[in-house]
Write a structure and sequence with these properties.
It is an enzyme of class 2 (transferase). Pfam families: HATPase_c, HisKA_3. This is Oxygen sensor histidine kinase NreB. By secondary structure, the protein is an alpha+beta fold. It has two domains: about 190 residues, no CATH class; about 150 residues, 2-Layer Sandwich (Heat Shock Protein 90). The protein is about 65% helix and about 10% strand.
Amino acid sequence: MVDGTAADAATAELDGTWARDVRWWDVAFYVIVVLSALALLAAGVSGRALLVSLAAVATILVTYLAWGRRAARTRDQVPAHVYLVVAIACTLVVVGQDALGTLLLFAVFTQIWMLSEHLWAQVVLCVALAAGTALALAFDPQTGRVEPEELASAAPQMGVALAFALSLGLWTAHTLRQSERHARLVDELRATQAELGRASHEAGVLAERERVAQEIHDTLAQGFTSVVMLAQAASADLDRDATDAARERLALVESTARDNLAEARALVAASAPAPLQGSTLGEALRRLVDRFADETGTRVELAAPESPRLSSAEDVVLLRSAQEALTNVRRHADATAVRVELRQDADGTVLEVTDDGRGLPVDASGFTEGYGLRGMRERVAAEGGRLEVGPRPGGGTRVAVRLPAGTRPADPAGVRPAATSRTGGPR
C-alpha cells in the first residue's frame, strides 16, 4: 500500500508554482483595468458615459478583491463564477459606453479560463462575453437601439476574438491538465520509491536478524552446548574422584569459552569467524575436529588440503557447515567414528561429513530438518551450492556440501591431502 505521507510532493510543487503565478496574474489584471480606465479618460469620454464606465470598472475591481482573488487561490467554483458573471456584465456595460472598453476583454477572457474549472462553463462564458460584446459594440446609447450595420461589423471581429480565446484557452487547459497528471504520476512514483525503500530496509533488517540468529546458532549456541556437556562430565569425574580427568574437562571448558568469546567479538565486529582469522580453512577444520574429538572421545578422521583456494565467503560456508554437521553427530548420531573430507576438482569443492552412528529414520517422512540444517542449506544456496543429507553406505549419516567452481582457479599445485585420526579425551 502506498503511504500517503510520501505522496503529494509534486502536487505541492505545482500548487506552489500556481500560487506564485497567481500573484503575477493579479498584477496583470490590475494593470489592464487601470489602463482601460485611463484610456477612457484619454479618449475624452465624459459625462454620464464616463461615470457609468468608471462605476463598472470599480465594480469589477471590488468583486475581484471580494471573490475572484480568493477563488484564484482556493479554486472554489461558486465565488469564481459569481465574480465572472459580474465581470462579464460590467465589461459589457463599459463596452456599451465606448469601444475602448474592449481592452477589458484581455483580462476577462483570461480569467474565465483561469478561474473556471469546468469546460462547459468556460465555453458558455466565453460565448456569452463575445456575443454580448458584439451587441454592446452595436448598441447606440443615444437611440437605445442595436444598429444592424454596427452588429454586422462587430460580429465577425468578435467571432475571431472568440475563436482565438477558445483555442488559446483549450490549449492552456489541456497543458494544465497534463501538468497535473504528470504531478500525480510523480507523486505516485515518489510514494512507490519510498515504499520500496522501506520494504528494502525491512528486508535488510530481517536478513541481518536471520544472519545474526544463524551465526549465534552455529557458534555461540554450539559452544555453550559443549561447555554444558563438558561441565556435566567434569562433575561426574569429580563424583568418581577422577580429578585428573576433571581438570582436563575444565581446561576444555575454559578453551571452549574463550573460543566462544572470540566468536562473539567477531560477530559484533561483523568480521570473519574467529577460527578463520589468520588461518586457512584446512587449519580451521583441523582445530575443529581436534576439539570435537577431545570433547566427545569420538574418533575423527580429517582429509583436507592444507590451503584450499577458496573465497572468504566459501571458507565461512564450509566451516559453518562442518560445525553444524559435527554438532548433529554429537547430539543425535551416537557415533564412534566420524570422517570429515574436503576435496576440490574442476567442478568445485565438496565438504563431506560421515559418521557410523544410528543414521536417519527408515521412514523418510519421520525426518524433519531442524533450524541448523535449514540454516546450512540457506548458506550453501547463497553461494550457488547444494546440500545433501542422507544415509551412509554401511550405516550412519552422510552430509555433503557442494560448491560450484565459478571463477575460482583450479586446485593449486602442491596441495596434498592431510589425514589425521584422533581419539578424544576421557569419556
